[in-house]
Amino acid sequence: MPAWEERPELSPPLDFSFCNISTIEDLLQTQPRAGPVPPQPPPLALRLNNNQLGGLEELPPTLWGLRLDPALLHWLDLSFNRLQHIHPVLSTLGALQSLQLHGNNIGELGEVDKLGVLPQLRRLTLHGNPMEELRGYRNYVLSELPHLTSLDFSAVTKQDREDAAIAQRGKKKGGAPGRRAPPLAS
Fold first, then answer.
1. pLDDT tens digits, residue range 1-22?
2. How many Å apart are CA 74 and CA 10, to the nearest integer?
3. Cα separations (Å) of 148 from 5, 35, 161, 167?
4. Three-class SS of residue 29?
5. How many CB atoms lie within 10 A of CB 74?
6. Domains of the chain: residue spans and CATH
7. Model-level pTM?
8. Distances in whole angstroms, Cα of residue 6 to Cα of each of 10, 11, 120, 121, 156
9. What are the helix and strand counts (H, E) for the chain?
């Protein structure tokens, strides 16, 4: 088995990073960046980082237009865009194992709840979003997504899991952490 099948982040991605894309539909008129040729068929990894994306509404049909099956996507990099929410369309990517959302403008911890339906998700980045500044951020994310093995490029430890479990019990008693962070200045 090739290494990238077990670790999709090692797969040559279909790379649209740094393409100044402002809508998902722009992908259909944009050439991917040169780099290693993704496996045929299909690419398991997609880079959309360092663009101007503010929404993901048309992600599945656009992926189909690129001949990429959304149900097979394992690795998605949406870092350094203008996302203010974790769009529900991400919850339809059932094979997703690695999701990078760092450097956006996601302010509410509750947004993380949308990712709880992704059974394969093991690696997630959210740092550099306003939510990171909220009290209990790491514990909240780990209590909502207990299957993660890495959060913000840091391994999830046994102590992290214990802390998240304690925070979860406290939340059930009404001690929920802050839920909203102020938006980043543009």
1. 455 455 545 567 888 999 999 9
2. 11
3. 18, 29, 10, 16
4. helix
5. 21
6. 3-172 (3.80.10.10)
7. 0.83
8. 9, 9, 12, 13, 19
9. 4, 7
